[in-house]
Amino acid sequence: MKKITLLFLTAALMCLSVNAQELTAAFSASEAMVPYYEMGWDSQDEFNTWTYSSTSSSTWMLGNLSQPFSTIDSNSTSSMILNYANGQNETATSPAIEIRESSQLEFYCYASGIYLVYGAWKLYAIVDGSSTLLIDQFLWAQDNAYDGPSWEKFTVDLSSYAGKSVQFKFVYEGDYGEDEAIDGFKIKQATTGDDATINIKEGESVHFIDASTGNVTSWNWTFEGGTPASSTEQNPVVTYNKAGSYPVTLTVSDGNTTATATRQAYVNVEGEAPHAIVGLPAGAYLSPWIMMFVPVNVPLTFIDASTGNPYQWAWTFQGTDITSSTEQNPTVTYTNEGQYGIRLEVTNDMGSSVFETVDNAIQAGGEQEIWNIAPEETLDLSMMEMGWYGNYAGTNWLGMGEFAEHFDAPIADATISKVNIYFGKTTAASTDADITVKIAAAGADGMPGEILGETSLKASELAYDPTTVNATEFVFDNPIEVKAGTEFFAMVGPFPNNSGDDIAILLVRRGVGKKCTAYHFVYDEDENYNYLETGTWYQNVDDPISMAIAPMLKYASTTAINTVGSTKQPVSHTYYNIAGMESSKPFTGVNIVVTRYSDGSQTATKIIR
Prior knowledge:
By secondary structure, the protein is mainly beta. The chain is built from three helices and 52 strands.
């Protein structure tokens, strides 16, 4: 009897022990960090903790540019200013800093993007006298299509430097670039402590981590300013799209009681200066040679695709029924055939950004090549080689006969005189094989339907030159009519697949879920795996691509193209590649083109050839 009583008593005490475990709510985040080195250049004493060398006596100094860093950090009084001059080779070097585990470098820079071709800085990490390049400002600007001027945050993962003593060194080289400012230089360590905060930019995400104790069975999160605004997941991921300082609340329950934890101003979302981007209007086509191709006398709504949540827009148009607009997405009509420029300036509290083109960026009316590849994608043109099975969009042994590139319907009647195709390989043992190009209207099922016209070349006539852009022209005997509102396809194939045949069209691969305009026809097989003449069209959604297939489309009007610019006329164009080399003609790849006008002004625009 005593043993039984003792057993019951022991069990009861164990239950009391479990139930007595206190329920507490607690959380942290992967992005939570605490700074352990800070440099704000807010006093001369602070300034003097770094070492400087310069060829110009006013290169490194305390001060503020037109947009002070106080727009980012209200406590800032000044920044490190780099004044441009001739023949500069300037350095600013930090003291040695012991880098802890899970550390990250963060700093800000204010600069005008268009002048970085003349002068830019590089940031190095120095360990035991050995330097490693961390950031090249000019290449960063190219990769991010930066125009500025605006405060931009730079971050560098320092995990590989944990436990090492590191100096950080800015090296500025150039001739008559532009004034720059650097500020907010911090080295931070990831931590779950109570003093940690999260500092991110608009559009970035936070990975929250539940650290509650007790027998938690449910979680209820509240994220002011976040998306989603609430969650019942244990470890949710939340995106913050608008600048501000936001609290986070977690309430947990064990089924009987609840506990709540709130961290005020835990997530600090930094406003981002906008980046002006002009989106493609519905009814406009991309082209290998101009920014976009549009009809005349048809309303077009230009799309503001800018980043950074701007709230002011200033559009300037050439050749349209209105010359300017402050709407976000204005509608305009090109009234005369010609080639024109466009300008968009966007603004928010963090600054402004300008997108400005040369005067022949937009062609209204007339005739032009069209395709589905954006200017920034031209550097990614390649072939899709499938090993032993051959090439997608070319010679193959997978039963794929024809390939087709889909095009949106024109919003005005048009004709197609030829199709230009850019090949990456044209090796043909079967020299007499016919390569046929067709224009087909889209069928009710969205696949190639009625054939509107066709033409052929021999495999030996395909053009390819690895040193230049050289299209193969498939010319129709008579222009093919494409009515407004009719989606259409440019089809090509079949390609020979005998021994020695190796033909492939250039294309851009984008990744699953992205834009896809490529289709292929797969032949049916009989019971002996022999191909039949019948088959099925498929869209290549598993590996979305666009092929370098460019119909020459002409809108119905036959008025000759006249290049019409603004009242100031371009005098010269100078091109710079990413290495800073200068030329009167575009380089292959990314270019900064500096256009000088008759009134003495100049603009700089990023283009890709």
